[in-house]
Amino acid sequence: MNDVHDYGNSWKRHYLERHLQEHIEKLGPENFVQSEIESLVQLCSPYVKRLSIQQLQAPQPPEFIDGDHCEWPTEVNSIDHISLQPFIKGLVNLEELHVMFGVRGCGMDFAWILFKFSLVDCINIGLGLNSANCLKTFRIHRSTLDDARVSILLQHIMRNTTINRLDFSHCEIGDQGALAIGKLLTVHPALEELILCNNKIGAAGANGLACALSHIASPLKLLDLRLNHIGNQGVTDLCSALANSEHPQELILAGCGFTEETGIKLGQMLQHNTTLQALDISNNNLGEVGGEALSHGIKDNTTLLRLDYRMTGITQEDASSINMSLKSNTNRYRRKQEC
Q: Name one GO biological process term (predicted).
């Protein structure tokens, strides 16, 4: 992202966003001085709209008595990083926040503890979110964000009514975390995109999200659950909710471990759903039976414009039938847009 066009054609914004990112990524907890941070944030605040943090330095490990080397004790399971609260709170124009916990280029000093973060880290981020009145996109990815940590963050996200995109992809959120996220969907007034790709959500978590879709308050447009093994039961619950729900408009279920019996449920759902425009079910074993159910179901659907059925094992005949139905829906949609 070195193109100034990515920064609103502002060289000042380009420089200050990159400078602040580099400063945060290199700042160790032992060098954190509140007054210096506040001065830096005040200087950068008018120009910074996006903050993308690719690493956070860990504190220095304790030194052994013999003084030969430093190493983290095996019983330590999380570490506190620098507080991001003053950055989030002080950047009054911040619209996007991307955070990844870990250390790049650690070399021979590698330890799993460097890629873990504490509940205190979550609390500090959450307190910052309470004051982020312009924030639209919040992303924590490729990090050890689990049920306990995401629950803390969600308590603060509920109070922030400007966030419309949440991305917790490639983390460790399980069923309890998904249930908490489902509760968020029933109360948050602005959330439009929810990305939970490659977590540890199972059938119980999918059921919680399905219940939330039946009582949703958020104007959700995108729900991404790819690479979560929610299985047949999880997708069946989602189909039951989607039969009558107006949200989302795009659903991604690629690589979710469901089979042909769920393909039948998907076909039945498409017969009743009137708002879904894009559906990704690639890399699931639907087979001939599931493909036939989909091709029949989509014939009665007038809104679906895109269906990704790659690597599902459906027959060429069913694929051709699906494509014809999609083309018909697309032509109908274009005519509506022209009117």
A: nucleocytoplasmic transport
Tell me the C-alpha to C-alpha distance, in Å, between residue 69 and each of 60, 62, 72, 81, 165: 11, 9, 10, 22, 44
d(CA 61, CA 59): 6
pLDDT of residue 77: 59
Domain 1-59+77-172 identical in fold to domain 223-339: yes
State the burial class of residue 162 (Cβ atoms within 10 Å of its Cβ: 0-12, 13-18, 19+): middle
Question: Could you state, in order of their start, the residue ranges of all structural domains in the chain?
Answer: 1-59+77-172, 223-339
pTM attached to this predicted model: 0.93
Yes or no: domain 223-339 corresponds to CATH 3.40.640.10:
no
Lowest mean pLDDT among 41-45, 55-59, 138-142: 55-59
| Domain range 1-59+77-172, CATH architecture | Alpha-Beta Horseshoe (3.80)
Residue 41: C-alpha distances to residues 98, 132, 166 (Å): 17, 14, 24
Position 103 scores a pLDDT of 86
